[in-house]
Amino acid sequence: MTTITVIGRQGCHLCPTALGIVEQVVAGLPDDIGGDIEIVERSIEDDPALYERWWEKIPVVLIDDQVHAYWRVSADKLRQELEKA
Description:
Blueprint: E1 2-8, H1 15-28, H2 31-34, E2 37-43, H3 48-54, E3 60-63, E4 66-70, H4 75-84
Parallel strand pairs: 1-2
Antiparallel strand pairs: 1-3, 3-4
Pfam families: Glrx-like (PF05768)
Organism: Microbacterium tenebrionis
Protein name: Glutaredoxin family protein
């Protein structure tokens, strides 16, 4: 199981876009890849440790707890990363 975590906060204008890109990419993957991916949303407002680490870089996209992107998410790069994993 691969976990994609999207870290953001309410009021962030880039966060819904990042989440939408992640959801769109996962939905477009073949079932044998996309069916094994879980998307998790986290907010820096709910976790002081997340706030301390990421407040300047949201939205942040992690793949299995490894940084994939922050601020802007490229659908092409995300798809490539998930297909090779």
